[in-house]
Write a structure and sequence with these properties.
seven-stranded mixed sheet, demethylmenaquinone methyltransferase activity, alpha/beta, menaquinone biosynthesis, SAM-dependent_MTases_sf, single chain, UbiE/COQ5_MeTrFase
Length: about 250
């Protein structure tokens, strides 16, 4: 694997900052909105998010023998989509925020795992507590954007993947078309905080979410980070005109 340079950023601005600033903010925001997170995703994406989840699962190249690690897995949207759509042998569902995993566990009780064995653990994606070459696939949806040391997290993903394994990452991105990008930024500034207030009465947290999306590297720059972390065959596919992209890389 190549040597990587690590530095931490304020995930709201992309500027260099102490990791604790972003980590404490993420704990607060996602701990607060955990119960409403799935509903917020559905409304704010006009229902498109399920299609994006399907594309992410498809990109992970799962087989019935796969052991899948879902990092920053939140309430389990990717994991449960994988269990339904392309069931692997086992899913390790992790997140930094315990309240998000509590919701994911309720979904397991409701049978959304479709018989696939699940395990849950609170995990910081910057320090993954699993052995080298442990997983056939790693997924992450809307997680890397909220991590202050992104290169450290990507290096950890690369480390725990088995040789030949796939990383599939769904993230908000940068629409290439200037007009569409401008309209999207208006949506982020005005509508996302409104949805946040409507569902949680906490508009400021959703101002952060909008800011973090605008501050995240564009598709080309994020792909370069994946290559720096050691991934091969790095590619991405845009959806909704580049509002989101599914990035993939292979170990």
């Amino acid at each position: 694997m190549t040597e990587t340079s690590h530095h931490t950023v304020d995930t709201a601005t992309g500027k260099e900052a102490e990791a604790a600033l972003s980590e404490e903010r993420v704990q607060h925001i996602f701990g607060t909105i955990a119960e409403q997170y799935k509903k917020f995703n559905a409304f704010s994406s006009f229902g498109l998010y399920k299609g994006w989840l399907r594309k992410t699962v498809d990109a992970a190249n799962l087989t019935p023998e796969s052991d899948l690690l879902d990092l920053a897995g939140g309430t389990g949207d990717v994991s449960y989509m994988a269990a339904h759509r392309n069931p692997p042998a086992h899913i390790q569902l992790t997140d930094f925020v315990p309240e998000m995993l509590d919701v994911a566990k309720e979904r397991l009780k409701a049978g959304e795992n479709c018989g696939v064995p699940f395990d849950f653990e609170v995990v910081d994606a910057q320090n993954v507590p699993y052995a080298d070459n442990s997983y056939d696939a790693v997924t992450m949806a809307y997680g890397i954007r909220n991590i202050p040391d992104r290169m450290k997290a990507l290096s950890e993903v690369h480390r725990v993947l088995k040789p030949g394994g796939t990383f599939a990452c769904l993230e908000f991105s940068t629409p290439p078309n200037a007009l569409w990008r401008a309209l999207y930024h208006v949506y982020l500034k005005v509508v996302i905080p409104f949805w946040g207030w409507l569902f949680t009465r906490d508009a400021p947290s959703f101002v952060y979410l909008a800011d973090s999306i605008k501050a995240f590297p564009c598709q080309k720059d994020y792909a370069a980070m994946l290559r720096e972390a050691g991934f091969k065959d790095v590619t991405w596919k845009n959806y909704a005109g580049g509002i989101v992209a599914v990035h993939t890389g292979r170990k």
